[in-house]
Amino acid sequence: MAMKIRQRGWSVVRVEGLSMIPTLAPDERALVHWGAEVGLGDVVVARRMDRPELLLVKRLVRSEGDGWWLEGDNPGASDDSRAFGAVETDAVIGKVVARWAGWKFVRL
Q: Which GO terms describe its biological process (predicted)?
């Protein structure tokens, strides 16, 4: 996912990979609210702790210590907390609030 990171605001990102099928498909556009409050079950954009240049789109599954456990909706195709563990709370940098459905955004 290529983008400029902003601390607050909104932008559209392009999803890469199969990890969030059926919620988000490869090359689908998603509307992200940067800096939004997040909670269990939300789809988020996060930095991977061991590779901070890499941004992930995953679901918040549970709180884990001082951070979050992230998983893809397609477990067989997801590189997520099952592989690299929980991420710190401040590694979660945005909330995916909608996906582009051809001619309009549809809330997740």
A: protein processing involved in protein targeting to mitochondrion; signal peptide processing
